[in-house]
Structures
1.
Amino acid sequence: MTQEQWGQVKQQLLKTVGSNNYKTWIEPLELQEVADGVATLAAPTSFLGNYVSQNFGDLILYQMGNINGDVRRINFSVAANSAARPTAPKADSTATSTSEDTASPAPGAKVAAASESLFPTAPLDDRFTFDSFIVGKPNELAHAAAKRVAEGGPVTFNPLFLYGGVGLGKTHLMHAIAWELQAQRPDLSVIYLSAEQFMYRFVQALRDRKTMDFKEMFRSVDVLMVDDVQFIAGKESTQEEFFHTFNALIDQKKQIIISADRAPGEIANLEERIQSRLQCGLVVDLHPTDYELRLGILQSKTEQYSAQYPGLKLADGVLEFLAHRISTNVRVLEGALTRLFAFASLVGHEITLELTQDCLADVLRASERKVSVEEIQRQVSDHYNIRLSDMIGPKRLRSFARPRQVAMYLCKQLTSRSLPEIGRRFGGRDHTTVMHGVKRIDELKQQDAQIAEDLEILRRTLEG
Ligand SMILES: Nc1ncnc2c1ncn2[C@@H]1O[C@H](COP(=O)(O)OP(=O)(O)OP(=O)(O)O)[C@@H](O)[C@H]1O
């Protein structure tokens, strides 16, 4: 691989990983040498080298392979000792870490016999255990199913299919299963990897003419876990391979655990036979968190932080406030708490409600349910059974004018748009017209029970 080709690889990586990731992680890398199919990349720090190796190693190798088929492995010229996960054993103890050896097995778990270049298990996050997973109504079934599978007993439901929205704990549960299996059943060979990694491995095997090794390896494991399976949608040959691997393991009564961001039947461009195969075991949904679960997660995180930041006090009501206000995903919730503790420890203050509102203003704003003017117009015209064009149009008929005023009122109440802006969205009306409409509905809702009820229903629908 020449420096020029390395430049092309970097250009491709820029497109794939985005400019922020690119600047931080890829740009600092230098191509040092290529010998015997092994490309050595020099990273300025061992941390960076390890991080890139873990997170982008496969991708870099994949792109390099596309541009120059001679490259089969990558080395990072950094010390292997500085790996991010101290508990994970090193796959080898040489002074370099490779994209393969960072994909190390769960400690203690036996890794399926495989050629080194296809070494498949992705690293596990040691924070993601059953102990640190808070159980509530929305995730109790998923948790119970994961626990059962983690016992490593006779296979009762196969596959276990976990699905749910972003940041609701799918990966956490899968890692927890892997850790538990490794502790309870170190005799089992367990492979955990993302569907994306499955694809890269497969492509690599195709390129290296090692598909038999690939097949053999995946078909000889006891437990196969594939995260984010929606990734293989639309990728035909990967799907094909996945399907055969899947069938072979099911036939041998080996446990398969799959996660996705939606139910099997809802993954577009996933072959029907795969969709139906995925549904033949237990399909469990991780529901969006509720208030109690969020509070539980915050309390548990706070205990950890209190140990980390001794002496830092948390005022009553702060966690409740956060659990109430941040209702998106757990990742955002955790991030908010991390920021709060870090900030409070810097300024040396007790974490009060004011400090929380101050420090997390952007997160709180972003979590507010955003209702758009268009959504309001649509809902209101549906409610009053008029056409959207009549609501926005010039007609002054009472049957259009009243719903229009209701919609203007709701826009003022539920969005942060100014009166002139609302006017513009209502067919270019003047801000005084909007002001008048808002005032009129304000008065009417005191006198007219029907209007008050309409407003209540609409507000509830719009705020979800
Ligand atoms: N019930 C829970 N208890 C404790 N932590 C949780 C819980 N649910 C999620 N988390 C935490 O939230 C973060 C996001 O979870 P995770 O990565 O498992 O989400 P995911 O469902 O795999 O999301 P994505 O679709 O983005 O991959 C992690 O730090 C995880 O530890």
Note: The pocket of adenosine-5'-triphosphate is lined by residues 128, 132-134, 139, 164, 166-172, 261, 297, 330-331, 334 (CB under 6 Å).
2.
Amino acid sequence: MRDLDEERAYADRCREALRRMVAGARENVVVGEDTWGDRYTAERLGFYLKTLARDMGEEGDNPPFFGLIAYGDSDPAAGEHRRQTYYLGRRHISDAIGRPPMVIDWRAPVSATFYQASAVEPRGIDTRRRFGWSGNRLTSFEDEHLQTGLGDGSGDSGSELVRREIERARVGPMRDIVATIQPEQDTLVRTSLDVSVCIQGAPGTGKTAVGLHRAAYLLYAHRSRLERNGVLVLGPNRAFLHYISAVLPTLGEVDVEQTTIEQLLDREVRAVDDPVAAAIKHDVRMAEILRRAVYGRIGRPAQAVVVRDESYKWRVNQHEFAEMVIEAEADATTYLTGRERVIARLVAAVQRQAEARGQNCNGVWLRRMARAVTPYVEEVWPVLKADEVLAEYLSDPGQVGLLTADEQRAIAWSRPRKAKSARWTAADAVLLDEVSALLERSPTYGHVIVDEAQDLSPMQCRAIARRSEHTSITVLGDLAQGTTAWAADDWATQLSHLGKPAAEIVALSTGYRVPATVVELANRLLDALAVVVPPTTSFRSDGELTITRVDDLAAACVEHIRGALSVEGSIGVIAADHQLPAVSDALKAAGIETSAADGDGRVAVVPASLAKGLEYDHVIALEPAEIVASETRGLNRLYVVLTRAVSRLDILHSRELPPELRT
Ligand SMILES: Nc1ncnc2c1ncn2[C@@H]1O[C@H](COP(=O)(O)OP(=O)(O)OP(=O)(O)O)[C@@H](O)[C@H]1O
């Protein structure tokens, strides 16, 4: 095995080889621009090579590898890898075609052994080495001798380097975890593309990290299949997306669409529903209501179809026409394909008559006939637009039924409106998506990863299900962190709304973010949250928790921030939404520079409603009782807030603490 100097020299050689790869890719771009004949191929290949050159160039001086595995001679489990040593990095590096790679991509099949091997099951490995870097300088390494169970670390997950990485102070956006993925996480990351999984994970167990690494893994293992339809990552809000935005690009994946369900639905939202109306619109009954609103437009023919064709007149009698409509309605996959089918069948009936008379029914003739029968079809099966259907429904919900009279009143517009003058709400956007899909099929993604999935309404789940109808999904969430009025109580129901009732549900309960003292406090809320989830066990023994009663919240907050600024790490001040403006003003008056939840400043001021999915090295949580009192699921919100802290949580309160937090 190499010593530290030799490893440094190897790292230099790897960087040199990477530079040659970048230069080669750039040259290919230049050469390729002149030589490819077919324009489409040239563009695709050119785009690919440019992206490769850019990514590899941007990688610059990053550590070329983070670990190695050295297979032994004696363990039969080594198989074809006997006596081989593999370096693992964020990307594959090779110095010449035909020669073994200098660094293997962390996603390659052999790399799984790095994450999965243990002293109990060494999988043929003699030594697992983890490298410590300070910036781009190799500073140390740590060996585990898996056949003998000896090592520099104190055992399997007790590796010092792993512990240091997990416990490091957090600054800036989320980072990748390729060097320290834990075995249970690796299994989930590498789950086959055909399998949908649902990860119920306590706070900080790495659900988001697993989801993002899974996206990168799937793109590596199934590049051509996924490139066509793409991978979609859905997160709860923009602050969260900002926080995670750097992870996939660092892993070399720049083409994954990362968005929120609201952005995905792409409707301008100009009004807000009251909570009662929103809850009704998000209820799964709306699916059947909208189906009826759409299919209820199909009528029965009141006359025969008569088409003039030069000196002929073709006729499909009323009864025959009605049969066509009834059959197409029964089989329609979407409203508009059903309509097309009626037109096609009418044209076929006319064609049969024309051919019997020796007519030449070419393409032009068929199109002319289709135009001629369309007005008849329009009368019984009109073309519809999603916004017109919904505007008509919300102008008079009584026309469809299924809701109680009170419910109908709650969602009805105060006066009938046309689609053009409608001011849609966020819930309407979901309903419009449902109607659009009833009318016409929407395209699907190659794989969809849904984070914070416990918060989705049944109707939002259906919007996601449509976009992953023929593919698998990865569902990430925590029932205890459900804060919406429609949050899921159990995964089985949520998965059936997501169209994947058979998805396997896997629980993660080892928390990597929140220190044990804070976890112990947050776990006390679980009983009151009325969901069945395993409590978190913290991987971390470090960390601090203080709970202080104060007279002046803002003044105490300023004082705590001043203390926190003297050590490294991000600081998040989290309070009930309505209390935040006053806190922000007080901090400004005290000369403390702050940023919003999606900013990159040292001190972020975060409304409790936006804290989900985020983390700060040092969290100052203000007035827990107010966070609980501010909303129906206030206790769940408090659970989210308390579990954002990485190194330290300070709770400041001027009122009584909620009973669950009292000792
Ligand atoms: N194997 C690991 N090695 C290093 N850090 C890790 C590992 N797993 C998770 N982490 C870190 O722990 C923190 C929490 O991870 P993540 O945000 O993915 O958890 P989560 O389960 O989505 O949490 P929440 O439900 O609270 O949003 C992140 O900083 C992440 O990088």
Note: The radius of gyration is 30 Å.
